[in-house]
Amino acid sequence: WDRFLLNRPKVEWNPRYYLEYRLFYPYSSGIPGQWMSHQIDTVHWFSGYDHPRSVVANGGIYVWKDGRMNADTFTAVFDYGPDNDPTKGFQVLYSSRMHNEAGGVKEYYFSNGGMINLDTNKISPEGGLKAEYAKAMNMQPNLLAETSLRSDIKMETGANTGGDPMTSLHMRNWLECVRSRKQPNASVKAGYNHSVANIMATKALHTGKRVTFDAQKQEIITS
Which Gene3D superfamilies match (predicted)? Predict the structure, then answer.
């Protein structure tokens, strides 16, 4: 039990803390660490940014009154972009609910030219700048070409991975790098970066404040 608690506050043995630790803070952040980490890691991979500029979040235990400490409903808004230019960037909206699974896990990336849908593995011009609207603003239309990503491999957007090809390839790459000593596709830096985003979101949820990150000092800052 002491090994489980590590540097957490000493408390009496509680089998629920041990077996259902994802429901209880400070042994788990709940939704951010268990689920959001997978999607936010993809954001970093696509964008090249290491961590958000800021995060705000809200949520609560609205449905499952079973003694848990972590929220069953959670929404966070992340701001990404260069630290020295607030006029450039984008937002990421993440939302999760544990009372209704309608729609499943979806992951969409929107741009001025269209969208990437990781549920259907397609790039489309949907929502992009069409000619009629571009002309009114003296701009050129900006529409992505319809493109289907590899259809023989279903992209897994949820966290319940296992036997799917993408997870197998991920593990194969890691094992090959253990042997070759090369850098894996998902490096330890990637793990650190999405941990920062998770901790920022958790801090924002618990404090109700806007959260930023000082990369030099490795400190989470609330404002």
Answer: Dihydrodipicolinate Reductase, domain 2
In the numeric block, the tokens 């997870």 are attached to: 167
- Bridge partner residues of 11 (DSSP): none
pLDDT digit string (tens) for 77-134?
Answer: 999 999 999 999 999 999 999 999 888 889 999 999 999 998 888 999 999 999 999 9
CB 222 within 8 A of CB 211: yes
Task: Map residue 147 onto helix, strand or coil.
Answer: strand
What is the number of helices (H) and of strands (E) in the chain? 7, 9
| Phi, psi for residue 31 in degrees, rounded to 5 | -55, -45
CATH assignment, 30-107+157-222 = 3.30.360.10
Q: What is the pTM of this model?
A: 0.88
| Pairwise CA distance, residues 127 & 122, whole Å | 14
- What whole-number distance in Å separates Cα of residue 91 and Cα of residue 55? 10
- CA separation for the pair 11, 119 (Å, rounded): 43
